[in-house]
């Protein structure tokens, strides 16, 4: 299972980097989103996948620590999801502005002269 998730991380990161190197604003936005998903999945997988113990523990029951899931990667992924959403929203706003200027090439958008 971990090998399959590692392959998925590699595919997401490779596709995201490929799309980031394109000349279209829409592809750059999609590349940022895919790269963010790949990074989130990598952090989540690094926390370890286990189903040894149920998530709910009865009152008074003692559970060994080695069987419990690590909550830190889950908290990091939650934070990263919020950050990647903000980046995607900003990139979408840039894409909308690019459509109003009638250009899709990032090099043509560099000029600030009017």
- In helices, the fraction of residues equals 55-70%
**Nearest-angstrom radius of gyration?**
20 Å
CATH architecture: Orthogonal Bundle
Quickly count the helices. 3
**Strand/helix succession:** HHH
Largest sheet: none
Q: Helix- and strand-based class?
A: mainly alpha
Kindly give the count of domains. Answer: 1
CATH class: Mainly Alpha
Overall body shape? elongated
- Beta-strand percentage range: under 5%
- The strand count comes to 0
What gap, in angstroms, lies between the N and C termini? 55 Å
> Quick check: average pLDDT?
80
Task: Could you tell me the CATH topology label.
Answer: Helix Hairpins
Low-confidence residue ranges: none
Model description:
This protein has 114 residues and is an all-alpha fold. It has one domain (2-50, 69-101): Helix Hairpins (Orthogonal Bundle). It has three helices and no strands. It has helices at 2-20, 25-46, 71-101. Helix 1 (2-20) packs antiparallel against helix 2 (25-46) and helix 2 runs antiparallel to helix 3 (71-101). It starts with a helix and ends in a 13-residue tail after the last helix. The mean pLDDT is 80.
Main features:
114 residues; mainly alpha; Helix Hairpins
Concise synopsis of the structure shown:
By secondary structure, the chain is mainly alpha-helical. It has three helices and no strands.
């Amino acid at each position: 299972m971990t090998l399959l998730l590692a392959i998925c991380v590699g595919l997401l990161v490779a596709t995201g980097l490929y799309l980031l190197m394109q000349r279209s604003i829409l592809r750059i936005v999609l590349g940022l989103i895919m790269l963010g998903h790949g990074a989130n999945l990598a952090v989540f997988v690094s926390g370890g996948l286990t189903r040894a113990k149920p998530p709910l523990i009865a009152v008074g029951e003692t559970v060994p620590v080695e069987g419990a899931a690590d909550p830190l990667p889950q908290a990091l992924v939650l934070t990263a999801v919020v950050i990647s959403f903000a980046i995607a929203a900003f990139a979408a706003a840039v894409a909308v502005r690019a459509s109003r200027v009638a250009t899709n090439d990032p090099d043509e958008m560099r000029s600030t002269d009017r």
